[in-house]
Amino acid sequence: MTDELSAQIGPDRTLLLVDDDEPFLKRLARAMEKRGFVTETAESVAEGKQIAHSRPPAYAVVDLRLEDGNGLDVVETLRERRPDCRIVVLTGYGAIATAVAAVKFGAIDYLSKPADADDVTNALLARGDVMPAPPENPMSADRVRWEHIQRVFEMCDRNVSETARRLNMHRRTLQRILAKRSPK
User: Could you confirm whether the keyword NADP appears in this record (predicted)?
Assistant: First the structure.
């Protein structure tokens, strides 16, 4: 951790991470600890709200969709308990409507997955009108499309017909896409 980063974080280094993807949550917690944050993790809305009530952190990263509900409930609780908390909402289901809702609930930024620890740190520590720099290696449009199709496919319990219906595409077209390797 650099002295500059330490100064940006400030004296209260507490960070709440709420995500139901356990491997991602553990990786992000380790990465954020290396950057100087004192992390606490939660894998559900209920657990996140409980921590927000008992030990409201200075920073928070909250997944939008959790198994037991909407991460915006955690954002709302954090805003009530600690209005100065800097909150970033993460989601694998990026859409303008959910980004607007997250900001209305009090998030300072909204990042689409996959986001790395540098993206999260930059969003948490961004001040004022300074826009974060664009990512060094953004995903290609083909990769973004493939990721979206994979997420919907998993949401539909790997049911090709249901996924094709939700994506408004022909079932055989979807099968061809799913049979290919992921684009770079």
Answer: no
